[in-house]
Design a protein that fits this description.
The complex is a heterodimer of chains A (153) and B (414).
Chain A (H helix, E strand, L loop, with lengths): L2 H30 L4 H35 L17 H24 L3 H28 L10
Chain B lengths: L1 E6 L8 H15 L3 E6 L11 E5 L15 H4 L5 H11 L5 H16 L7 E5 L6 H4 L6 E4 L4 H11 L3 H10 L2 H8 L4 E4 L2 H11 L6 E3 L20 E5 L9 H9 L6 E5 L8 H8 L6 E3 L5 H10 L2 E4 L8 H8 L4 E4 L4 H4 L6 E4 L4 H12 L2 H18 L2 H22 L1
Parallel strand pairs in B: 1-2, 1-4, 2-3, 4-5, 5-6, 6-7, 8-9, 8-11, 9-10, 11-12, 12-13
Helix pairs in contact in B: 1-17, 10-15, 13-16
C-alpha cells in the first residue's frame, strides 16, 4: 500500500476518533450527568478549550511569526533612491511579538483556571469576524446593482 | 503516456506560468504525450487542439475591496471555497494557490473515475491540495522557476512601513510551499542557479531537482532581416520590479555618449513613474523611450532592430529577454545574476558584467557598439545557442525524459 494511502487511513481514524471524543465530552457527558458528574464539567470545558485553543494559537502564532520575520529580515542594502525607513518597523514588530506572546500566555492561564471568559472572548472574536464578513458580503450584494440602469449600455 | 497539468493561472499574458503551460503542453503533445490541463483564471488561449482543458473557478479578488467586486463576483463569494478565499484575502494573504490546489484535487478525483494518468505536473502552485493527490498512486512533479523567497526579498527592500512589511509576510505562502515541495516526487527548475536557490529556500535535496531550461518560440523570435538601428539599446521588463536593476541601467546610460538611446518595453509615465523619475535623476530622460505594452510581433521587431539588448537584473530565474534577444540575432549585454550566466555565453553571444556595476555595463555596451563585426558574429552565435538550448521542442524533450525517470523511480519504489 502506498505511504500516502496509509496516511489517509490514519487521518481518517484519528479525525473520527477525535470527533467522537469531542461530541461525547462536550454534549453527551454534561447531559448524562450522573455517571460523569465529578468530571463531566471539566471534560466539557476542555473539549471546547482544546480546539478553540488551537485556533487561538494559530492566529496569535501567525501574529508572532509576522513580527519575528520582520525583526529578522536580512536583505541586500536598499537601493540608494529608497528613502531611509523611518516607520519604526522593527520596534513595532517587537511589540507585536511581545503582545502575541502575552496574549497566548494569558489564554493558557485562563484555560488553566477554567475561566469561562478565556473561551468566550476568542470565540466571540472568531464568530464576529466570520459573521461580520458574511454580513458585509450580504450588504454589498444588496447595495450593488445587478444590472445597468435603464438607458445605459 | 498521459500527463495531467495543474496551473493556477493559465493566461500567457499574466505571467510566465501561462506561457510555460501553453508551449510546453503543445510540444509534449507533438511527442505523443496525451495532455489534460486543470487551469484557473485568467484562462489560457485555446489549447483544445492538443489538450483537454478543465477550467476551475477563482474570483481573483486579492487587493479588490468588497464593494468593488461587482454583482457577479459577490453572488459567488458565499460558496465555501470562495468564502475561504474571501476571508484570507481580507487579511492580505494570497490564497489562490491553496484554493486552486484544493479545487484541482476535487476535480482530479472525479476525472480519475474515467481517465488514467501516468504523472501529474504542477506548475509552481505547491498548494496543500497536492498532498492528498499523492494518494492517487502516481508521481507528482512540479516546476518552480524561482522560489517566492526571491520575490519576498525584493518586496522587503521596497517596503517602507511596518504595515507594508506585515502584509508582505502574509502575502507569500512560503510555509505551505516548503512543506509541500519536500513531499513531491521531483522538482523541475530552469537553471543550475535555481537548484541552489531551491535548496536554500526550502531545504530541498539537490537530488530531487532536475534542470530543464525554459523554452521560447524560436520560430516567432527570429530575425527577418530588418534594418538594425545604430546606438539603440533595448530593455524588456517590469521597471517597477527592483530585481530588474533598472536603476543601474539608467546610470550606465548616463555614462554613455548622448547618441546612445534606450527603449524600454514597459509602461512609462503617467502609469509607471519609477524608471522615469530615475531617468530624470540621471539626466537621461530625453534618451529613454517607453513603448508600453506591445504585441508579440512588435516585440520581435524591437528585438530585431535594436543594436543591443541589455539585461541589468539583480536576479533572474531564467532571463527570457536575453534568450529572446539571442534568438533574434541581437547581442546581449547582461549581468551575471541568477541564471543569466547560463543563458548567455560571455564573449560568444554577448558580454557579461557584474550586477550593480553601471561602469562595467557602460564599458561593455561601448565595446560592442564600437564593433559591428563582433556584434554580427555574436548575433549569429546567439541564435544558434537559443535554437539548440532554449527552444520549446528541446524543453519538451528534456521534460519528457524527466517524466520517464520519475515514473520509473516511482514504480520501482512501490
Amino acid at each position: 500500500m502506498p505511504r500516502a494511502k496509509i496516511y489517509g487511513y490514519i487521518a481518517l481514524l484519528v479525525s473520527t476518533a477525535l470527533a467522537a471524543l469531542f461530541f461525547y465530552y462536550s454534549f453527551y457527558g454534561p447531559v448524562a450527568g450522573g455517571l460523569f458528574s465529578a468530571l463531566a464539567a471539566d471534560y466539557a470545558y476542555y473539549a471546547v478549550a482544546v480546539p478553540l485553543g488551537l485556533l487561538v494559537f494559530i492566529v496569535l502564532g501567525t501574529g508572532f511569526w509576522i513580527g519575528w520575520t520582520i525583526l529578522t529580515i536580512k536583505v541586500a542594502p536598499p537601493m540608494p533612491e529608497i528613502v531611509e525607513k523611518k516607520d519604526y518597523a522593527k520596534p513595532k514588530a517587537l511589540l507585536l511579538c511581545l503582545a502575541t506572546l502575552a496574549l497566548m500566555a494569558l489564554f493558557a492561564y485562563g484555560v488553566y483556571l477554567k475561566s469561562y471568559w478565556a473561551l468566550a472572548v476568542p470565540a466571540a472574536a472568531f464568530t464576529l469576524v466570520v459573521l461580520g464578513m458574511v454580513f458585509w458580503v450580504g450588504l454589498a450584494i444588496i447595495t450593488t446593482r445587478a444590472t445597468l440602469p435603464d438607458g445605459k449600455k | 503516456m498521459r500527463a495531467l497539468f495543474l496551473c493556477y493561472r493559465g493566461n500567457p499574458f499574466c505571467g510566465g506560468q501561462g506561457v510555460y503551460l501553453y508551449y510546453l503542453t503543445r510540444e509534449l503533445a507533438k511527442l505523443g504525450v496525451e495532455i489534460d490541463v486543470i487551469v484557473g483564471p485568467p484562462y489560457p488561449e485555446p489549447m483544445e487542439k492538443w489538450a483537454r482543458v478543465y477550467r476551475t473557478e477563482n474570483l481573483n479578488i486579492w487587493s479588490i475591496r468588497t464593494e468593488h467586486f461587482g454583482y457577479e463576483k459577490l453572488a459567488r463569494v458565499l460558496s465555501p471555497m470562495n468564502f475561504v478565499d474571501y476571508l484570507l484575502t481580507r487579511f492580505h494573504a494570497f490564497p489562490e494557490m491553496e484554493t486552486f490546489s484544493m479545487r484541482a484535487f476535487n476535480l482530479t478525483r472525479k476525472l480519475l473515475k474515467e481517465r488514467h494518468y501516468d504523472i501529474i505536473h504542477d506548475v509552481q502552485c505547491l498548494g496543500w491540495g497536492l498532498l492528498p493527490m499523492k494518494g492517487f498512486g502516481m508521481p507528482i512533479v512540479t516546476t518552480v522557476h524561482h522560489p517566492l523567497t526571491k520575490d519576498r526579498e525584493a518586496d522587503f527592500i521596497r517596503d517602507k512601513s511596518f504595515w507594508e512589511y506585515a502584509t508582505t509576510v502574509l502575502f507569500y505562502p512560503l510555509g505551505m510551499q516548503r512543506i509541500v515541495i519536500n513531499r513531491l516526487d521531483r522538482v523541475v527548475t530552469s537553471s543550475m542557479e535555481g537548484v541552489d536557490e531551491l535548496e536554500k529556500a526550502f531545504g530541498l535535496k539537490r537530488d530531487k531537482i532536475s534542470v530543464v531550461y525554459n523554452g521560447l518560440d524560436v520560430e516567432v523570435f527570429s530575425n527577418g532581416g530588418e534594418k538594425r538601428g545604430e546606438n539603440t539599446l533595448l530593455f524588456v521588463g517590469n521597471t517597477e520590479d527592483y530585481k530588474k536593476g533598472t536603476r543601474y541601467l539608467l546610470e550606465a546610460l548616463s555614462l554613455l555618449p548622448k547618441k546612445v538611446k534606450l527603449t524600454i518595453v514597459d509602461e512609462g509615465p503617467p502609469k509607471r513613474l519609477s524608471a522615469y523619475e530615475l531617468a530624470k535623476r540621471f539626466g537621461v530622460e530625453d534618451r529613454v523611450t517607453f513603448t508600453g505594452k506591445v504585441s508579440m510581433a512588435a516585440l520581435v521587431h524591437l528585438y530585431c532592430t535594436a543594436t543591443l539588448v541589455v539585461v541589468s537584473s539583480l536576479h533572474e530565474g531564467f532571463g527570457l529577454p536575453a534568450a529572446e534577444g539571442m534568438a533574434c540575432e541581437t547581442p546581449v549585454v547582461s549581468t551575471t545574476s541568477g541564471a543569466l550566466k547560463e543563458v548567455m555565453k560571455h564573449g560568444e553571444t554577448g558580454l557579461l558584467v557584474p550586477p550593480k556595476d553601471p561602469r562595467a555595463m557602460a564599458d561593455a555596451i561601448m565595446q560592442l557598439l564600437s564593433n559591428k563585426k563582433l556584434r554580427e558574429k555574436m548575433g549569429k552565435a546567439g541564435r544558434k545557442r537559443a535554437v539548440e538550448n532554449f527552444s520549446w521542442p528541446v524543453a519538451a524533450k528534456n521534460t519528457l525524459d524527466v517524466y520517464r525517470r520519475t515514473i520509473d523511480e516511482y514504480r520501482s519504489n512501490r
